[in-house]
Structures are given as structure tokens and as C-alpha cells.
Amino acid sequence: EIWKKRLKFFCYKTIATVRINDLFEIMVDYPESHPAVLDIKKCLAHVQCSYFLVKSVQDTFKERLLHPGANTEDIITQYSSAIKVLRFLDPSGAMLEKVCGPLRTYLKKREDTIRCILFSLMSEEENELTREFSATTGTLFKSNDDSDLETDDWEKWKPQSKDMPTELKSKSSKSADIISTLCSIYGSADIFVNEYRTLIAEKLLTTSNYDISLEMRSMELLKVGFGENLSQCQIMLQDVVDSKRTHSNIMNTIKQGFPFEISTLIISHVFWPNLRNEEIQIYKPLQDYLTGDYQAAFSELKRSRTLEWRLNLGFVELDLEFANRTLSFTVSPVQATIILCFEDTDKCHADSISNTVGLSLSQTRKKLAFWVTNGVLKESSKDMFELETEVKQTQQVVVEEMDSAMVKIEQVREEELEGFTFYVMGVINQSGQVTVERIHKLLSLVLYDSVAGQLTVEEVKTFLDKKVKQKLLVYAGGVYKKPK
Predict the structure, then answer these.
(1) Measured between alpha carbons, how far is residue 146 from residues 42, 92, 132, 142, 150 in Å?
(2) What is the pTM of this model?
């Protein structure tokens, strides 16, 4: 009887070891690999190998996921599968916390994690995250206070494994859905909402037919988890709907239309992310039409509002006819203006193009490189560009990879901090000397709802060090003070 028990124990231990060594691949194939997970669960009931499981999966994650070569989408997908498998193996959540702790920390450090999660949720095609999100009820961000006192599903409570690492014994066993677990990496909805605003702004700025049905669908989906935090995004979508009606009314009001089909997006700038504003000149007939007849008709229609044009944003669809074929291009307004400089001539000097679009010569040459690369122009001599009569471009439709319409978060933060220069100098004058932590605490109070997100100590230190270089402050002994 003793040998029978020993043999049974040995069999369970051997099967557990084999299955645990293959657990990474089992997670990849889940839920198809559910029978293998059942084997592990049954073995864990007879053999104390939870610590071995945790250590093995941790090491595999570190080797195969926690490095720059791993794709963020793949890491998120594997994390989602790990949540399902480990929750099935250990309903208490302690094993999941220990195994996925380093994974969560690494994902938080990756700059594109939030964007990848949101891209999946906004995708037209159904995927794992959209299915999980559809099943989500209630807000995604809940306080963990008094989590030990929660009594939901108390009948299903199970004690933690005996050989679980001791540092996890006090962890909460509260369960949550996969989307909530992913979002809780950052702890606050503000970071997700700000990123979503940026993503949806970029999409809306590239729509030409005012069709926002997909964005409306994703908005309704996200409202389940983020609630009233998306109020600004709702206003952005409403701007598109209002723009369609306003543009139609303006075009009906203007007696003489424009030769080309145009569409405009009129936004309430207070509710949108900061948009890039570059002083450029676009195709003169179009610019005159927009700032003249179109703006006058808008002022007549909306007497309490004024238009401020962002001529550098948007896109232009062009058909260029050559001797051997016709090519279609989707480019930025400045690129369209550059190629239209060759409307009445075959040759044009870079200086002339630079003056037309209002860019420096070096910036103009960078823009011209796009047309040279696509075989539309050639540089016949220094700074002299000439149209090609025939093109060898294999693509029938060419879409320019345009710069983001948003102002970079780093630039927004820098401008915000610069606005508080006199405030910081006043604090230092009054106190004599202050630490970076003190300044950070004070600035965090006034920038708590910043579009650039939560202020960090590193950002404040960079700002103060800049003032030291400008000789406005002196840094010594870990404190900042006025120079003598």
C-alpha cells in the first residue's frame, strides 16, 4: 500500500513537471489546451509544486517576453492567456500575482502598451479583448480599499497552496476580468482616456466623408468601462456630426463654389488634444477661398464663433497624369502645394518652392524627397527639380506617411512648466532653498488635470536643471536656491 502511494505520488509529480515545463506553449494555445491545464490542476491537488510552477513560468516569461525584441501585442496576448490559465489553476489569485507581477511592471514601462490595448478594443475585427470587453460590466477602475472585506462569491473561496511563496500569503484574492486587470496596470483611467482622445483625434482628422460609425461603436463600448471620463471624446464625435451639417449649409450659401471637392472639420478646440500649428502657405486659390468666401459664410451662419485655420493639417487626394499612366496620391496639404508648383512648368527651383509654401530650404528639400523617391520629380541640377515624363512607380495608389497632428506630450509638459517659472522662483525666494520633491508636490497640485498626464519627479528635475543652465538657479547639496 505504501509503495502504491509512492508510485501514485511519483506519477503525479512527473506529469506535473512535464506539463509545467510546457506551460508557456499551453498558455499560447489556450483554450484549446484546456485538457493539459486540467492535468496540472489535478496534479497540484496531490503534489506541492506551486513554487516550481511560479518559478518556471517567471523564468520563461523573462526569457521570451521581457525584452525589447518581443512585440507588445504578443506580450498582451500572452498576458491575457496567462490570466485565464492561472486563475483556473489558483482561484485565490496569489499565483497570478506572483507570475505576472514582472510582466505588469514591464508592460507599464513600454510606451506603446496603452495604444496597443486601445487599438485592439477599437478594431473592426472581433478579437480576444473586444470579446472580453463586451462582457465587462461596471467601471474598470475600482478602489482596492477594504478589498479583504469583500464577500462576493464567498462560497467559492479556497485556501492558498501550502508551498506558495510567503510574500504572497497576504495578497487579496479578489478576482477581476481580463480587461480590468490590464487597465489596472496604470491604476488610473486618466492615462487611458488621454491616449484614447489622441487616437480618436488622429482618426477623425483623416476622415473625408464624415463617416464615424466605427468610432461611435467603439465609444459606446468604452463607455461601459470608462463612464463619464469620455465626455470630451463624445464632444469630439459630435463636432464631426455638426461639421457635416455646417459645411453643407456653407456650401449652399456660397454662390460660387470651388472647382475641387473639399470638406472641412470644424472643432471645439477646448475639448480636443493640442494640435500642431505651423505657419505655412497652401495652394493659393484654395487658401484664398477658405479664408475669404468660406470664412465669411461661416461668420454669417455662426455669428458668435470664429474660425482659426490649421492649414498644415488634413490631407489631399491627387491624381497625377503621366505619359504612360495615372497615379493616385494621398498627401498632406504642403506636399500637394509643392507638386502643384509644377502645374504650369516642368522645372522649378527649390528656393521658389520654399517661398511658395513658407518653409525653410532644408525643410522644403525634405518634402521634395518624397516626390523624388516616388519617381514624380528628379533633381536635374543642384536645387533644380524637374517633372518626370514617365514614371516607373509600381504602386497605383501612394499614401504619404504623415506626421502626427498632435503636439507631443513632452512639448505640452515643457510649455506647462515654463508657465510656472515665476511661481517656482517665488517659492524658492521665499523658502531660501527647496528640494525637487517639494517643487514636485506643489506643481502636482496645480497640474493634477493636465492633458500631459501625471507630473513626475524626473520632469520637474529636468525643468529645474534647465533653469540652472540658464543661471537662474543654483543646485548644491541636493537643493535648489537662488544664485548669490
Answers:
(1) 33, 16, 26, 11, 7
(2) 0.69
